[in-house]
Write a structure and sequence with these properties.
Layout (H helix, E strand, L loop, with lengths): L1 H25 L6 H30 L3 H28 L6 H27 L1
Length: about 130
């Protein structure tokens, strides 16, 4: 689990690095920079929360029997998906405060950060 904890920290750092890049790349090009920035922050917070919840789920599932672990993983996956959809749908009702596009890109940062961690690990192995 120590490897998983290290990976979790790297993915969370990657989420926020990507959030910073997205904010700096676009904040000067939009008509509402506050909504742009807040949307990215909310999306990144959601992605961070989802990664922490995934890590805790995996810790729990390692102690469960196989069938219970599979059921727990399914339920937690559905819960994470529902929460992400709820955050995204909620942002659509308040676009003056949160741009749905940047909420989505913030949540998508979880995927890119996870991919970048494995890419950086391969890069380290080459050296």
């Amino acid at each position: 689990m120590e490897t998983a904890r290290t990976s979790l920290k790297q993915v969370i750092a990657g989420i926020w690095i990507l959030a910073g890049i997205v904010i700096l790349a676009g904040v000067f090009w939009v008509s509402n920079p506050l909504a742009y920035t807040l949307g990215e922050a909310v999306g990144s917070l959601t992605a961070t929360g989802m990664m922490i919840q995934l890590y805790r789920s995996l810790e729990t599932e390692m102690d469960l029997p196989r069938k219970q672990a599979v059921n727990h993983a399914r339920i937690m996956s559905i819960l994470r998906s529902f929460l992400e959809l709820a955050v995204l749908a909620g942002s659509m009702f308040i676009p003056q405060w949160l741009l749905p596009f940047t909420v989505f890109t913030g949540m998508l940062g979880r995927k890119f950060a996870a991919l970048s961690v494995s890419w950086f690990e391969k890069l380290k192995e080459r050296r």
